[in-house]
């Protein structure tokens, strides 16, 4: 099924004298706070719940998902602050072991000191899960008796200097992330970790619709435990990208950033990385009601196996078209390659293809219906990692 990454707010809010009528569509006002609730439901059919290969038991099941959400928006000295909370419950009709309840929360705000100085910050919390057969249980999802649950928290802050109309401006960022899995026995013990992030991004306008961009980022990754202390996965990463963002015309927007990334482990037994990284994308709108997007990215990711790290390359193409104001369709194809790097015999090489087709209809302002189909296929040099998986579903979203 689709993994949700958007989040919401989990905080207790201000006292208020009472609920008034909605001040605008979809909102309820209580004092100085606007509440925006919604409810999303889904009915899916998954033909391979645990991402099993052809030689393993294949579990097929219908899944019912319900996900209520509440966002709260207020202002502080003219600057918007948003809180939110979402809970998601999934019930597998033919596989109770895969049932789950996830919680998501976030807080986000921005503060404009003046036209040259701006601040924005966010905090996010997720009490979520990896499906059986995903991430750390690739190839043996059937061996787990429940989803692989975790708690992830993250805070980020950005200071921006330079007016939006100026020739040059700079963003300075800092962040922290903590990932903690609930299952911590055996091989699952050695994956809890912290991220410390710092970076800067420079924009310089070289033409009316063209900006020179320079990204510099540093990240330190520290693991709580190591299978062998002399072979810890702790590492430091540095990445520098340079490129351009430009609008060819009002219908076409593009960006290209290419550079260098270095990942250096504290343990001498681990294999360091240094090589090319890139982020490239284009959005083309041949008509106001039709949009094409193409994106590609090359980077490294933390390992989920005995390897030292994963060298990844992602490619995607999508098309969204509004046939009428209330009815749209989206088609997306994505191709991902993952090469597992390290001093290990028979290292993994995965190629994953994903096709997604969806249609959405706004039946009323407050009621949306959707249909979707997703095909997933992974081809690996390790047969146990291969899988084919099809998901079909209907969705409904209700707002005020």
UniProtKB/TrEMBL annotation:
Residue ranges annotated as compositionally biased, kind Polar residues, are 139-148
Q: Tell me the SUPFAM superfamilies matching this sequence.
A: Porins
Keywords linked to the UniProt accession:
Signal
Annotated signal sequence is 1-22
Q: Name one Pfam family in it.
A: BBP2_2
Show the segment(s) annotated as Disordered.
126-148
Protein's recorded name: Outer membrane beta-barrel protein
Species whose genome carries this gene: Alteromonas pelagimontana
């Amino acid at each position: 099924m689709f993994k949700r990454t958007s989040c919401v707010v989990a905080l207790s809010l201000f006292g208020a004298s009472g609920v008034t009528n909605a001040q605008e569509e979809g909102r309820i006002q209580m004092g100085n706070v606007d509440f925006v609730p919604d409810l999303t439901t889904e009915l899916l059919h998954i033909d391979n719940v645990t991402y099993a290969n052809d030689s393993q038991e294949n579990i097929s099941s219908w899944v019912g998902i319900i996900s209520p959400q509440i966002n709260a928006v207020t202002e502080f000295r003219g600057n918007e602050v948003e809180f939110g909370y979402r809970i998601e419950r999934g019930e597998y009709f033919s596989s109770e072991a895969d049932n789950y309840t996830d919680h998501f929360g976030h807080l986000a705000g921005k503060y404009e000191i003046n036209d040259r100085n701006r601040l924005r910050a966010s905090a996010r919390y997720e009490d979520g899960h990896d499906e059986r057969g995903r991430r750390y249980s690739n190839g043996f999802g059937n061996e787990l008796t429940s989803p692989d649950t975790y708690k992830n928290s993250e805070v980020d802050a950005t200071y921006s200097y330079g007016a939006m109309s100026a020739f040059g401006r700079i963003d300075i960022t800092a962040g922290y992330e903590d990932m903690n899995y609930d299952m911590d026995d055996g091989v699952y013990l050695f994956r809890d970790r912290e991220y410390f992030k710092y970076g800067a991004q420079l924009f310089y306008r070289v033409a009316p619709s063209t900006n020179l961009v320079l990204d510099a980022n540093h990240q330190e990754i520290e693991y709580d435990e190591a299978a062998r202390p002399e072979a810890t996965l702790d590492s430091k990463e540095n990445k520098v990208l340079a490129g351009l963002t430009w609008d060819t015309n009002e219908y076409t927007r593009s960006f290209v950033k290419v550079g260098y990334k270095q990942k250096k482990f504290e343990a001498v037994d681990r294999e360091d990385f240094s090589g090319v990284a890139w982020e490239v994308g284009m959005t083309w709108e041949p008509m106001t009601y039709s949009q094409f997007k193409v994106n590609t990215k090359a980077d490294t990711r933390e390992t989920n196996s005995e390897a030292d790290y994963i060298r990844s390359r992602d490619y995607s193409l999508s098309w969204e078209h509004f046939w009428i104001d209330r009815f749209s369709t989206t088609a997306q194809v994505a191709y991902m390659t993952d090469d597992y790097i390290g001093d290990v015999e028979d290292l993994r090489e995965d190629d994953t293809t994903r096709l997604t087709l969806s249609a959405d209809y706004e039946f009323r302002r407050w009621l949306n219906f959707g249909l979707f189909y997703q095909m997933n296929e992974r081809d690996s040099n390790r047969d146990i990692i291969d899988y084919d998986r099809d998901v079909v579903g209907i969705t409904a979203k209700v707002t005020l």
